[in-house]
Amino acid sequence: MKWTSWIASIGTVVMTAFVASSLSAEEPPPGADPVPVKVMVLGVYHFANPGLDAVNIEVDDVLAPKRQAEIAVLVDTLADWEPTKVAVENEAPAPTFVIEEYADTEELLTNTRNESIQIGYRLARQLGHDAVYGYDEQPGEGEPNYFPLSEVQAFAQENGGMELLGSLFAEVQAMAAKEQENLANQTIAQSLLTHNDTARISAMHDKLYYSLLKIGDGDKQPGAELNAFWYMRNAKMFAKLDMIAEPGDRVLVVAGSGHATWLKHFVRRMPGYELVEPMPYLKRAAAQSEPTN
Question: Which residue from 50, 90, 275, 289 could staple onto 73, CB 3.0 to 4.6 Å apart?
C-alpha cells in the first residue's frame, strides 16, 4: 500500500470514529432513555401588587432605576444557566402556548411591572429566544374553583373551625409582614432567597394546606376539596410545561412561590425530568448586588 493511501485510510477511520462519537454525545443510542428535560423553578412574589392572593405584600416600584439595575443583575446570573426555553405563569393558547405579546418586550419592560415580563421576557430576549411560553391554568366555564377558600371559611364559621383558620392565617400574615419590612433593605435577588428556600416553602405549604384537611365533617369536606383542586391546577400547569418541553431542554419556569412546592414535586417524579435548584444562582446575584438607600 502506498503511503498516501495508508494515510488516507487512517484519516477515514479517525473521521468516522469522531463523527460517531459526536452523534452519540448528542443523541442517545436506539432504545436508550431520552436526554432529560432540566427544569429550574424560580419562585417569585408579585412585582405589580395585583392583590390576588389571600395574603399580599406591597412592593415598591420595580420600574425605578435601582430596581431595574437589580433585576438586570438577577437576569444576567440566570442567563449563565443557559435555559433553552422560558415559561411564565401566564395563560397562552394550546398547543404551542406561545405568548404573542413577547414581541413587544422592549416597550413592556419600560411600562409594565409584572414579574413575568421583568424576569421572564427580559431573560428570553437577552438569550435571543424566539418565544416565551405561558403555562398558567385558570378555570373555564363549568370547571371548579381551584382555590375555594370561601367555602372553607364558611364551613369553619358554622362548625367551629375558625380558631384553626385564625392561627394559620395569623402565621402567614406574620411572615408577610416580616417580608414587607425586609423588602426596603433588600435587592430583588436577596428578597427572592426567601421565596426559593425549599425547606421553608415546603414546611409552610404542608402546614397551611394539610391543616385544612381538618375542616370538614365527613359529609362535607371543603378543606379536602381545596387541597384537591389546588393540586389539580398545579398538575394541569405542569402538564402544559410537559407539552412545551422537549428532551434535552433547559426550562426556566417563573412561578409564584405558592406553586413551587407542587411544580418541583412533579419535576422530581415525572420520568424524563431533572430538577435544578435556583438558589446557587440567586445567592450569586445577591452577592453581586447591594441595596442602595
Answer: 289
Distance CA 67, CA 60 (A): 9
Helix (H, G, I), strand (E, B) or coil at 117: helix
Using 70 as the pLDDT threshold, list the residues of the chain that sit under it: 1-32, 49-57, 291-293
Q: Tell me how many degrees the CA angle 22-25-26 measures, rounded to the nearest 5.
A: 90
Strands (E) in the chain, as ranges, are: 37-44, 85-88, 133-134, 250-256, 273-276
Whole-model pTM: value is 0.85
Burial label for 13, CB within 10 Å (0-12, 13-18, 19+), is: exposed
CB 53 within 8 Å of CB 258 = yes
Distance (Å, rounded) from C-alpha 103 to C-alpha 9? 52
